[in-house]
């Protein structure tokens, strides 16, 4: 009895169980929410806004530090070897930079 039951279970697992598990997780993966172009555009705008705000804060801190020698800049002070500009792979950012240079 054991000699017949074991091969049936193995064949059942290989041809029914394994594809069932694979297809189950494929459908879960396809149903997962994806980022839309609108979401990507909003994230890029938020990143650009955060970068500009950080630049403004650094400028204000430099001005205050020039007027008041006892002032210590906070954590947002630019550090040696640190750059706010990241290489952009977004076409909207490249267009924005091109537009800002021409104005």
Overview of this structure, please?
There is one protein chain. It is built from 3 helices and no strands. The model has no long low-confidence stretch (mean pLDDT 80). The longest helix has 31 residues, at 37-67. Helices cover 71% and strands 0% of the residues. The chain has helices at residues 2-31, 37-67, 91-102. It has 103 residues and is mainly alpha-helical.
Main attributes of the structure:
103 residues; 3 helices; rod-shaped
List unreliable stretches of 5+ residues.
none
Number of strands: 0
Give the CA-CA distance, first to last residue.
85 Å
Q: Please state the overall shape, judged from the principal axes of the Cα atoms.
A: rod-shaped
| Beta-strand percent range | under 5%
Quote the average pLDDT.
80
Alpha carbon gyration radius: 28 Å
Report the order of strands and helices.
HHH
DSSP helical segment count: 3
Helix content bin: over 70%
Q: Report the structural category.
A: mainly alpha
Major sheet details = none
Question: Any chance you could write out the topology, listing elements then pairs?
Answer:
Layout: H1 2-31, H2 37-67, H3 91-102
Give a concise summary:
The chain is mainly α and 103 residues long. The chain has helices spanning 2-31, 37-67, 91-102. It is rod-shaped, with a radius of gyration of 28 Å.
């Amino acid at each position: 009895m054991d000699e017949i039951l074991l091969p049936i279970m193995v064949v059942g697992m290989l041809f029914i169980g394994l594809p069932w598990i694979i297809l189950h997780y494929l459908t879960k993966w396809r149903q997962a929410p994806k980022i839309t172009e609108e979401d990507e555009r909003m994230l890029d705008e938020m990143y650009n806004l955060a970068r500009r705000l950080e630049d403004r804060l650094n400028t204000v801190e430099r001005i205050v530090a020039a007027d008041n020698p006892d002032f210590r800049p906070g954590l947002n002070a630019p550090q040696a070897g640190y750059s706010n500009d990241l290489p952009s792979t977004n076409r909207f950012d490249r267009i924005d930079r091109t537009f800002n240079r021409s104005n």
